[in-house]
Protein backbone atom coordinates (compact mmCIF):
# COMPACT_ATOMS: atom_id res chain seq x y z
CA UNK A 1 0.00 0.00 0.00
CA UNK A 2 1.35 3.39 -0.98
CA UNK A 3 0.31 6.51 1.00
CA UNK A 4 1.06 10.01 -0.29
CA UNK A 5 0.93 12.93 2.19
CA UNK A 6 1.42 16.71 1.85
CA UNK A 7 0.45 20.03 3.43
CA UNK A 8 -0.26 23.40 1.83
CA UNK A 9 -1.79 25.94 4.16
CA UNK A 10 -2.49 29.63 4.34
CA UNK A 11 -5.70 31.48 5.18
CA UNK A 12 -6.27 34.29 2.71
CA UNK A 13 -7.76 37.60 3.82
CA UNK A 14 -8.71 38.98 0.41
CA UNK A 15 -8.98 42.49 1.89
CA UNK A 16 -5.34 42.43 3.02
CA UNK A 17 -3.08 44.50 0.79
CA UNK A 18 0.03 42.44 1.55
CA UNK A 19 0.48 39.55 -0.90
CA UNK A 20 1.39 36.08 0.27
CA UNK A 21 4.58 35.25 -1.60
CA UNK A 22 7.19 32.52 -1.32
CA UNK A 23 8.96 34.58 1.34
CA UNK A 24 5.89 34.15 3.55
CA UNK A 25 6.21 30.36 3.34
CA UNK A 26 9.99 30.42 3.68
CA UNK A 27 9.92 32.43 6.88
CA UNK A 28 7.12 30.39 8.46
CA UNK A 29 7.46 26.73 7.40
CA UNK A 30 8.56 25.31 4.07
CA UNK A 31 9.92 21.77 3.78
CA UNK A 32 10.27 19.53 0.76
CA UNK A 33 9.40 16.07 2.08
CA UNK A 34 11.06 16.43 5.49
CA UNK A 35 8.43 18.07 7.71
CA UNK A 36 7.90 14.93 9.81
CA UNK A 37 11.58 14.90 10.75
CA UNK A 38 10.82 17.89 13.00
CA UNK A 39 8.45 18.32 15.96
CA UNK A 40 4.83 18.87 14.86
CA UNK A 41 3.01 22.17 14.63
CA UNK A 42 -0.73 22.68 14.13
CA UNK A 43 -0.69 22.09 10.39
CA UNK A 44 1.93 19.30 10.36
CA UNK A 45 0.39 17.21 13.13
CA UNK A 46 -1.67 15.33 10.58
CA UNK A 47 1.40 14.33 8.57
CA UNK A 48 3.02 12.89 11.69
CA UNK A 49 -0.14 10.91 12.49
CA UNK A 50 -0.50 9.61 8.94
CA UNK A 51 3.15 8.63 8.66
CA UNK A 52 3.13 6.85 12.03
CA UNK A 53 -0.08 4.96 11.34
CA UNK A 54 0.95 4.06 7.79
CA UNK A 55 4.38 2.83 8.87
CA UNK A 56 2.87 0.75 11.66
CA UNK A 57 0.86 -1.06 8.96
CA UNK A 58 3.93 -1.57 6.79
CA UNK A 59 2.79 0.90 4.13
CA UNK A 60 5.12 2.83 1.85
CA UNK A 61 4.94 6.55 2.76
CA UNK A 62 5.64 9.25 0.18
CA UNK A 63 5.96 12.60 1.96
CA UNK A 64 5.75 15.61 -0.33
CA UNK A 65 5.66 19.33 0.32
CA UNK A 66 4.77 21.05 3.57
CA UNK A 67 4.25 24.78 3.01
CA UNK A 68 2.64 27.00 5.64
CA UNK A 69 2.45 30.81 5.59
CA UNK A 70 1.01 33.26 8.09
CA UNK A 71 -2.28 34.57 6.68
CA UNK A 72 -2.14 37.67 4.50
CA UNK A 73 -3.56 38.72 1.13
CA UNK A 74 -3.95 36.48 -1.93
CA UNK A 75 -1.05 34.20 -2.79
CA UNK A 76 0.89 35.39 -5.80
CA UNK A 77 0.43 33.54 -9.05
CA UNK A 78 4.02 32.34 -9.26
CA UNK A 79 4.08 31.15 -5.66
CA UNK A 80 0.83 29.19 -5.88
CA UNK A 81 1.75 27.65 -9.22
CA UNK A 82 5.14 26.54 -7.89
CA UNK A 83 3.84 25.04 -4.63
CA UNK A 84 0.87 23.24 -6.15
CA UNK A 85 3.01 21.95 -9.03
CA UNK A 86 5.49 20.51 -6.54
CA UNK A 87 2.78 18.35 -4.97
CA UNK A 88 1.59 17.19 -8.39
CA UNK A 89 5.08 16.43 -9.66
CA UNK A 90 5.99 14.51 -6.48
CA UNK A 91 2.82 12.49 -7.00
CA UNK A 92 3.79 11.79 -10.60
CA UNK A 93 7.37 10.92 -9.69
CA UNK A 94 6.26 8.21 -7.28
CA UNK A 95 3.91 6.73 -9.85
CA UNK A 96 0.71 7.70 -8.05
CA UNK A 97 -0.60 6.33 -4.77
CA UNK A 98 -3.35 4.14 -3.36
CA UNK A 99 -4.33 6.66 -0.69
CA UNK A 100 -3.63 10.41 -0.81
CA UNK A 101 -4.07 12.39 2.42
CA UNK A 102 -3.66 16.16 2.36
CA UNK A 103 -3.72 18.69 5.18
CA UNK A 104 -4.94 21.87 3.48
CA UNK A 105 -6.33 25.03 4.98
CA UNK A 106 -9.52 25.48 2.99
CA UNK A 107 -9.41 29.28 2.68
CA UNK A 108 -6.43 29.76 0.40
CA UNK A 109 -6.97 32.19 -2.48
CA UNK A 110 -4.40 32.96 -5.16
CA UNK A 111 -4.31 35.89 -7.55
CA UNK A 112 -5.73 33.71 -10.30
CA UNK A 113 -7.47 30.91 -8.35
CA UNK A 114 -10.32 31.61 -5.93
CA UNK A 115 -10.61 28.03 -4.64
CA UNK A 116 -7.02 26.80 -4.32
CA UNK A 117 -7.96 23.64 -2.41
CA UNK A 118 -10.58 22.71 -5.00
CA UNK A 119 -8.03 23.35 -7.73
CA UNK A 120 -5.38 21.15 -6.09
CA UNK A 121 -7.82 18.35 -5.39
CA UNK A 122 -9.14 18.41 -8.96
CA UNK A 123 -5.61 18.17 -10.33
CA UNK A 124 -4.74 15.36 -7.92
CA UNK A 125 -7.91 13.51 -8.91
CA UNK A 126 -7.15 13.95 -12.61
CA UNK A 127 -3.73 12.46 -12.04
CA UNK A 128 -4.91 9.62 -9.79
CA UNK A 129 -8.52 8.82 -10.72
CA UNK A 130 -8.63 5.59 -8.70
CA UNK A 131 -6.92 6.73 -5.51
CA UNK A 132 -8.76 7.32 -2.25
CA UNK A 133 -8.34 11.04 -1.60
CA UNK A 134 -8.89 12.43 1.88
CA UNK A 135 -8.40 15.99 3.07
CA UNK A 136 -8.23 17.53 6.52
CA UNK A 137 -9.22 21.20 6.64
CA UNK A 138 -9.05 24.01 9.15
CA UNK A 139 -12.64 24.86 10.05
CA UNK A 140 -12.07 28.43 8.80
CA UNK A 141 -12.51 27.22 5.26
CA UNK A 142 -14.72 27.72 2.23
CA UNK A 143 -16.27 24.36 1.45
CA UNK A 144 -16.89 24.14 -2.31
CA UNK A 145 -18.58 21.80 -4.77
CA UNK A 146 -15.28 21.37 -6.53
CA UNK A 147 -13.63 20.08 -3.34
CA UNK A 148 -16.42 17.56 -2.80
CA UNK A 149 -16.36 16.38 -6.41
CA UNK A 150 -12.61 15.80 -6.43
CA UNK A 151 -12.16 14.07 -3.07
CA UNK A 152 -13.62 11.08 -1.24
CA UNK A 153 -13.41 12.31 2.32
CA UNK A 154 -13.25 15.78 3.92
CA UNK A 155 -12.96 16.31 7.66
CA UNK A 156 -12.78 19.73 9.35
CA UNK A 157 -11.29 20.52 12.72
CA UNK A 158 -14.24 20.72 15.16
CA UNK A 159 -12.64 22.91 17.78
CA UNK A 160 -11.77 26.61 17.79
CA UNK A 161 -9.16 27.12 19.19
CA UNK A 162 -7.96 24.17 17.12
CA UNK A 163 -6.77 21.53 19.58
CA UNK A 164 -8.16 18.51 17.77
CA UNK A 165 -5.95 18.28 14.68
CA UNK A 166 -4.60 14.92 15.84
CA UNK A 167 -8.05 13.46 16.39
CA UNK A 168 -9.18 14.65 12.94
CA UNK A 169 -6.07 13.17 11.32
CA UNK A 170 -6.70 9.80 12.96
CA UNK A 171 -10.35 9.87 11.90
CA UNK A 172 -9.48 10.70 8.32
CA UNK A 173 -6.79 8.02 8.12
CA UNK A 174 -9.14 5.35 9.44
CA UNK A 175 -11.94 6.34 7.06
CA UNK A 176 -9.56 6.42 4.10
CA UNK A 177 -8.18 3.01 5.01
CA UNK A 178 -11.69 1.54 5.24
CA UNK A 179 -12.81 3.23 2.03
CA UNK A 180 -9.80 1.96 0.12
CA UNK A 181 -10.40 -1.55 1.45
CA UNK A 182 -13.98 -1.38 0.15
CA UNK A 183 -15.48 -1.64 3.64
CA UNK A 184 -17.29 1.69 3.25
CA UNK A 185 -18.43 3.89 0.36
CA UNK A 186 -18.24 7.54 1.47
CA UNK A 187 -20.99 9.90 0.26
CA UNK A 188 -20.61 13.57 1.12
CA UNK A 189 -23.21 16.33 1.24
CA UNK A 190 -23.24 19.83 2.72
CA UNK A 191 -25.80 22.46 3.67
CA UNK A 192 -25.18 26.19 3.41
CA UNK A 193 -26.21 27.64 6.77
CA UNK A 194 -26.16 31.21 5.37
CA UNK A 195 -24.11 32.47 8.28
CA UNK A 196 -20.93 34.55 8.20
CA UNK A 197 -19.35 34.96 11.63
CA UNK A 198 -16.90 33.40 14.12
CA UNK A 199 -17.74 30.67 16.62
CA UNK A 200 -15.66 29.80 19.68
CA UNK A 201 -16.30 26.16 20.53
CA UNK A 202 -15.08 25.94 24.11
CA UNK A 203 -18.19 27.08 25.95
CA UNK A 204 -21.93 27.68 25.82
CA UNK A 205 -24.19 26.83 22.90
CA UNK A 206 -21.32 26.25 20.48
CA UNK A 207 -19.74 23.68 22.78
CA UNK A 208 -23.12 21.94 22.94
CA UNK A 209 -23.46 22.04 19.16
CA UNK A 210 -20.07 20.36 18.73
CA UNK A 211 -21.39 17.64 21.06
CA UNK A 212 -24.54 17.38 18.91
CA UNK A 213 -22.38 16.80 15.85
CA UNK A 214 -20.56 14.01 17.69
CA UNK A 215 -23.88 12.42 18.64
CA UNK A 216 -25.04 12.57 15.01
CA UNK A 217 -21.76 11.04 13.87
CA UNK A 218 -22.37 8.03 16.11
CA UNK A 219 -25.59 7.12 14.26
CA UNK A 220 -25.72 4.12 11.91
CA UNK A 221 -24.45 4.79 8.39
CA UNK A 222 -22.95 8.15 9.42
CA UNK A 223 -19.17 8.27 8.99
CA UNK A 224 -18.31 11.89 9.77
CA UNK A 225 -19.99 15.17 10.69
CA UNK A 226 -18.08 18.43 10.68
CA UNK A 227 -18.84 22.12 10.29
CA UNK A 228 -16.93 24.42 8.00
CA UNK A 229 -17.21 27.66 10.01
CA UNK A 230 -16.13 29.69 6.97
CA UNK A 231 -13.58 32.49 7.00
CA UNK A 232 -15.37 35.85 7.04
CA UNK A 233 -12.68 38.14 5.62
CA UNK A 234 -12.69 36.64 2.16
CA UNK A 235 -14.68 37.98 -0.75
CA UNK A 236 -15.23 34.61 -2.43
CA UNK A 237 -18.37 32.99 -3.79
CA UNK A 238 -18.38 30.17 -1.22
CA UNK A 239 -17.84 32.25 1.93
CA UNK A 240 -19.90 31.20 4.96
CA UNK A 241 -20.58 28.28 7.29
CA UNK A 242 -21.47 24.91 5.75
CA UNK A 243 -22.49 21.72 7.47
CA UNK A 244 -20.78 18.63 6.05
CA UNK A 245 -21.93 15.05 6.51
CA UNK A 246 -20.36 11.86 5.18
CA UNK A 247 -22.41 8.65 5.16
CA UNK A 248 -21.67 5.10 4.11
CA UNK A 249 -23.32 4.91 0.69
CA UNK A 250 -26.42 6.82 1.84
CA UNK A 251 -26.46 10.09 -0.15
CA UNK A 252 -30.02 10.94 0.91
CA UNK A 253 -29.21 10.55 4.60
CA UNK A 254 -26.10 12.70 4.10
CA UNK A 255 -28.18 15.50 2.56
CA UNK A 256 -30.97 15.28 5.11
CA UNK A 257 -28.67 15.21 8.11
CA UNK A 258 -26.53 18.07 6.76
CA UNK A 259 -29.68 20.15 6.32
CA UNK A 260 -31.13 19.24 9.71
CA UNK A 261 -27.91 20.07 11.55
CA UNK A 262 -27.30 23.14 9.37
CA UNK A 263 -30.74 24.55 10.13
CA UNK A 264 -30.24 23.74 13.81
CA UNK A 265 -27.00 25.73 13.72
CA UNK A 266 -28.83 28.63 12.09
CA UNK A 267 -31.44 28.54 14.87
CA UNK A 268 -28.61 28.94 17.36
CA UNK A 269 -27.03 31.91 15.53
CA UNK A 270 -27.56 34.45 18.30
CA UNK A 271 -26.33 32.01 20.95
CA UNK A 272 -23.18 30.81 19.17
CA UNK A 273 -21.98 34.34 18.39
CA UNK A 274 -21.18 37.40 20.46
CA UNK A 275 -21.31 41.13 19.95
CA UNK A 276 -17.83 42.29 20.84
CA UNK A 277 -17.20 45.57 22.63
CA UNK A 278 -15.59 48.55 20.89
CA UNK A 279 -12.35 49.81 22.43
CA UNK A 280 -13.84 52.59 24.58
CA UNK A 281 -16.49 50.33 26.11
CA UNK A 282 -13.97 47.57 26.72
CA UNK A 283 -11.66 49.98 28.55
CA UNK A 284 -14.66 51.26 30.54
CA UNK A 285 -15.55 47.71 31.46
CA UNK A 286 -12.15 46.75 32.81
CA UNK A 287 -11.96 50.12 34.63
CA UNK A 288 -10.14 49.58 37.89
CA UNK A 289 -10.98 45.92 38.22
CA UNK A 290 -8.57 44.10 40.52
CA UNK A 291 -6.43 41.35 39.06
CA UNK A 292 -5.16 40.87 35.54
CA UNK A 293 -7.43 41.73 32.61
CA UNK A 294 -6.65 40.39 29.15
CA UNK A 295 -7.90 42.40 26.17
CA UNK A 296 -7.90 40.77 22.75
CA UNK A 297 -7.12 43.24 19.97
CA UNK A 298 -9.32 41.22 17.62
CA UNK A 299 -9.12 43.63 14.71
CA UNK A 300 -5.38 43.19 14.31
CA UNK A 301 -4.97 39.42 14.35
CA UNK A 302 -2.23 38.47 11.91
CA UNK A 303 -3.58 34.91 12.20
CA UNK A 304 -6.54 36.15 10.14
CA UNK A 305 -4.51 38.21 7.70
CA UNK A 306 -4.40 41.55 9.53
CA UNK A 307 -1.02 43.29 9.40
CA UNK A 308 -0.21 43.07 13.12
CA UNK A 309 0.97 46.66 13.39
CA UNK A 310 -2.27 48.46 14.26
CA UNK A 311 -2.05 51.15 16.93
CA UNK A 312 -5.74 51.78 17.68
CA UNK A 313 -5.72 50.00 21.06
CA UNK A 314 -2.38 51.40 22.18
CA UNK A 315 -3.38 54.94 21.21
CA UNK A 316 -6.63 54.66 23.17
CA UNK A 317 -4.86 53.32 26.26
CA UNK A 318 -2.19 56.00 26.19
CA UNK A 319 -4.86 58.67 25.70
CA UNK A 320 -6.55 57.43 28.89
CA UNK A 321 -3.30 57.63 30.80
CA UNK A 322 -3.20 53.90 31.54
CA UNK A 323 0.25 52.88 32.67
CA UNK A 324 0.57 49.38 34.06
CA UNK A 325 0.07 47.22 30.99
CA UNK A 326 1.84 45.02 28.46
CA UNK A 327 0.94 44.71 24.77
CA UNK A 328 2.09 42.83 21.70
CA UNK A 329 3.05 41.44 19.31
CA UNK A 330 3.58 44.49 17.12
CA UNK A 331 4.94 43.46 13.72
CA UNK A 332 7.42 46.21 12.95
CA UNK A 333 10.66 44.93 11.37
CA UNK A 334 11.99 48.50 11.05
CA UNK A 335 11.74 49.15 14.77
CA UNK A 336 13.29 45.72 15.47
CA UNK A 337 16.26 46.59 13.26
CA UNK A 338 16.76 50.01 14.86
CA UNK A 339 16.61 48.52 18.36
CA UNK A 340 19.06 45.76 17.41
CA UNK A 341 21.49 48.40 16.21
CA UNK A 342 20.97 50.50 19.33
CA UNK A 343 21.36 47.51 21.66
CA UNK A 344 19.88 46.42 24.98
CA UNK A 345 19.79 49.23 27.53
CA UNK A 346 19.55 51.97 24.92
CA UNK A 347 17.09 54.80 25.26
CA UNK A 348 15.68 56.06 21.99
CA UNK A 349 12.59 57.33 20.19
CA UNK A 350 10.83 54.89 17.88
CA UNK A 351 7.94 55.36 15.47
CA UNK A 352 5.90 52.24 16.22
CA UNK A 353 3.29 50.56 14.03
CA UNK A 354 0.72 52.06 11.69
CA UNK A 355 2.91 51.45 8.67
CA UNK A 356 1.08 48.90 6.57
CA UNK A 357 -1.99 50.86 5.56
CA UNK A 358 -5.05 52.71 6.74
CA UNK A 359 -6.36 49.68 8.67
CA UNK A 360 -3.35 49.96 10.97
CA UNK A 361 -4.06 53.51 12.16
CA UNK A 362 -1.32 56.09 12.68
CA UNK A 363 2.20 55.33 13.83
CA UNK A 364 3.00 56.42 17.39
CA UNK A 365 6.25 58.12 18.39
CA UNK A 366 7.44 56.71 21.71
CA UNK A 367 10.42 57.33 23.99
CA UNK A 368 11.48 53.84 24.97
CA UNK A 369 14.16 51.82 26.67
CA UNK A 370 15.29 48.61 24.96
CA UNK A 371 14.89 46.05 27.75
CA UNK A 372 15.70 42.90 25.80
CA UNK A 373 16.23 41.35 22.38
CA UNK A 374 15.71 37.64 21.74
CA UNK A 375 15.88 35.50 18.62
CA UNK A 376 14.72 31.92 18.21
CA UNK A 377 11.93 31.96 20.77
CA UNK A 378 8.65 30.15 20.21
CA UNK A 379 5.22 30.03 21.81
CA UNK A 380 3.05 26.98 22.26
CA UNK A 381 -0.07 26.41 20.19
CA UNK A 382 -1.37 23.08 21.42
CA UNK A 383 1.56 20.70 21.38
CA UNK A 384 3.38 22.64 18.67
CA UNK A 385 5.81 25.51 19.05
CA UNK A 386 5.18 28.52 16.82
CA UNK A 387 8.17 30.70 15.88
CA UNK A 388 8.28 34.37 16.87
CA UNK A 389 11.25 35.70 14.89
CA UNK A 390 13.35 38.37 16.61
CA UNK A 391 11.49 39.83 19.59
CA UNK A 392 12.28 43.21 21.15
CA UNK A 393 11.01 44.20 24.59
CA UNK A 394 10.50 47.94 24.91
CA UNK A 395 9.52 49.84 28.05
CA UNK A 396 8.03 53.29 28.18
CA UNK A 397 6.85 55.56 30.97
CA UNK A 398 7.97 53.18 33.66
CA UNK A 399 5.46 50.35 33.62
CA UNK A 400 4.29 49.96 30.01
CA UNK A 401 5.90 47.01 28.24
CA UNK A 402 5.69 46.56 24.47
CA UNK A 403 6.59 43.46 22.51
CA UNK A 404 7.71 44.11 18.93
CA UNK A 405 8.91 41.49 16.44
CA UNK A 406 9.81 40.94 12.82
CA UNK A 407 7.69 37.84 12.09
CA UNK A 408 3.93 38.29 11.71
CA UNK A 409 2.35 36.00 14.26
CA UNK A 410 -0.53 36.31 16.70
CA UNK A 411 -0.13 35.88 20.46
CA UNK A 412 -0.93 32.32 21.45
CA UNK A 413 0.49 31.95 24.93
CA UNK A 414 1.63 34.05 27.94
CA UNK A 415 5.15 32.76 27.35
CA UNK A 416 5.32 35.15 24.39
CA UNK A 417 5.71 37.88 27.02
CA UNK A 418 7.15 36.04 29.97
CA UNK A 419 10.12 34.35 28.36
CA UNK A 420 11.58 37.72 27.38
CA UNK A 421 11.24 38.88 31.01
CA UNK A 422 7.86 40.64 31.20
CA UNK A 423 6.07 39.50 34.37
CA UNK A 424 2.37 39.52 33.54
CA UNK A 425 1.40 38.83 37.17
CA UNK A 426 2.58 42.34 38.01
CA UNK A 427 0.41 43.96 35.31
CA UNK A 428 -3.16 45.22 35.42
CA UNK A 429 -3.82 44.67 31.73
CA UNK A 430 -2.26 42.70 28.90
CA UNK A 431 -3.38 43.35 25.33
CA UNK A 432 -2.86 40.51 22.88
CA UNK A 433 -3.09 40.80 19.12
CA UNK A 434 -5.16 37.65 18.64
CA UNK A 435 -8.74 36.49 18.17
CA UNK A 436 -9.32 33.26 20.10
CA UNK A 437 -6.22 31.08 20.06
CA UNK A 438 -4.81 32.88 23.12
CA UNK A 439 -7.93 32.11 25.13
CA UNK A 440 -7.10 28.84 26.87
CA UNK A 441 -3.55 29.60 28.01
CA UNK A 442 -4.39 33.18 29.07
CA UNK A 443 -7.50 32.11 30.98
CA UNK A 444 -5.12 30.17 33.25
CA UNK A 445 -3.33 33.33 34.40
CA UNK A 446 -5.94 36.10 34.16
CA UNK A 447 -9.00 37.24 36.07
CA UNK A 448 -10.95 38.74 33.15
CA UNK A 449 -10.83 38.34 29.39
CA UNK A 450 -12.47 40.92 27.14
CA UNK A 451 -12.52 40.48 23.38
CA UNK A 452 -12.44 43.85 21.72
CA UNK A 453 -13.90 44.71 18.30
CA UNK A 454 -10.99 46.98 17.50
CA UNK A 455 -10.62 48.41 14.00
CA UNK A 456 -8.24 46.63 11.63
CA UNK A 457 -7.92 43.95 9.01
CA UNK A 458 -9.87 41.41 11.09
CA UNK A 459 -12.41 43.68 12.75
CA UNK A 460 -15.30 41.40 13.79
CA UNK A 461 -18.04 43.50 12.17
CA UNK A 462 -19.67 40.80 10.08
CA UNK A 463 -22.59 42.90 8.86
CA UNK A 464 -20.19 45.28 7.20
CA UNK A 465 -17.60 43.10 5.46
CA UNK A 466 -17.82 43.89 1.74
CA UNK A 467 -18.74 40.44 0.43
CA UNK A 468 -19.65 40.96 -3.23
CA UNK A 469 -19.31 37.45 -4.68
CA UNK A 470 -21.57 35.37 -2.45
CA UNK A 471 -24.81 34.73 -4.33
CA UNK A 472 -27.22 33.81 -1.51
CA UNK A 473 -28.13 36.19 1.32
CA UNK A 474 -26.53 35.62 4.70
CA UNK A 475 -26.90 36.51 8.34
CA UNK A 476 -26.04 38.95 9.86
CA UNK A 477 -26.08 41.10 6.70
CA UNK A 478 -29.80 40.26 6.56
CA UNK A 479 -31.93 39.08 9.46
CA UNK A 480 -33.76 36.25 7.65
CA UNK A 481 -31.67 34.84 4.80
CA UNK A 482 -33.90 31.76 4.42
CA UNK A 483 -37.13 33.70 3.89
CA UNK A 484 -36.38 34.43 0.24
CA UNK A 485 -37.82 31.10 -0.91
CA UNK A 486 -36.90 31.66 -4.56
CA UNK A 487 -33.31 31.05 -3.49
CA UNK A 488 -33.96 28.05 -1.25
CA UNK A 489 -31.88 24.96 -1.81
CA UNK A 490 -34.00 21.95 -2.68
CA UNK A 491 -35.37 20.18 0.38
ZN1 LIG B 1 -8.64 28.35 11.85
Our Rg estimate from Cα atoms comes to: 23 Å
**Main structural class:** alpha/beta
Instruction: Give the CATH architecture of the largest domain.
Output: 3-Layer(aba) Sandwich
In CATH terms, the superfamily of the largest domain is Response regulator
Average pLDDT reading:
96
> CATH class of the largest domain, please?
Alpha Beta
Describe this structure as you would to a colleague:
This protein has 491 residues and is an alpha/beta fold. It is 28% helix and 24% strand. The chain contains 13 helices and 19 strands. It has helices at residues 22-28, 45-56, 77-93, 116-127, 145-150, 165-180, 204-217, 251-267, 279-286, 312-319, 333-342, 415-418, 439-443, and strands at residues 2-9, 29-32, 60-68, 99-104, 132-137, 153-156, 186-192, 222-228, 242-248, 293-297, 325-331, 347-352, 364-375, 378-381, 384-387, 390-396, 400-405, 429-432, 448-452. β16 (390-396) and β17 (400-405) form a beta hairpin. α2 packs across α6 and α3 (77-93) runs parallel beside α4 (116-127). The longest helix is centred in the first third of the chain and has 17 residues, at 77-93. It starts with a strand and ends in a 39-residue tail after the last strand. The mean pLDDT is 96.
Topology:
Layout: E1 2-9, H1 22-28, E2 29-32, H2 45-56, E3 60-68, H3 77-93, E4 99-104, H4 116-127, E5 132-137, H5 145-150, E6 153-156, H6 165-180, E7 186-192, H7 204-217, E8 222-228, E9 242-248, H8 251-267, H9 279-286, E10 293-297, H10 312-319, E11 325-331, H11 333-342, E12 347-352, E13 364-375, E14 378-381, E15 384-387, E16 390-396, E17 400-405, H12 415-418, E18 429-432, H13 439-443, E19 448-452
Parallel strand pairs: 1-3, 1-4, 4-5, 5-6, 10-18, 10-19, 11-17, 11-18
Antiparallel strand pairs: 2-3, 7-9, 8-9, 12-13, 13-16, 14-15, 16-17
Helix pairs in contact: 2-6, 3-4
The structure holds zinc ion.
The site of zinc ion has 4 residues, from loops.
Amino acid sequence: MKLFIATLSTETNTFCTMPTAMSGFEEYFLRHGTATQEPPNLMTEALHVWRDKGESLGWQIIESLTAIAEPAGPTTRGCYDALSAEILSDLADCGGADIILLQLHGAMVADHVEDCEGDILARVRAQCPDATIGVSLDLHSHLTDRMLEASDLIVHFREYPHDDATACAIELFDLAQRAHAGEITPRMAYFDTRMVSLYLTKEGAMKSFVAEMATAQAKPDVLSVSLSHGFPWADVEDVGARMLVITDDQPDIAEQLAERLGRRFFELREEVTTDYLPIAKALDQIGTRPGLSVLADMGDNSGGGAPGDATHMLAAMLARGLTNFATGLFWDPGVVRICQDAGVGSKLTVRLGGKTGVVSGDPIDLDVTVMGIDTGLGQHLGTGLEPMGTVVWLRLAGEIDLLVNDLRVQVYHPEAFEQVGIRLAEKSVVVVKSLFHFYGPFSQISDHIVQVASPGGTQPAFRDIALTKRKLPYWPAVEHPFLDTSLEKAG
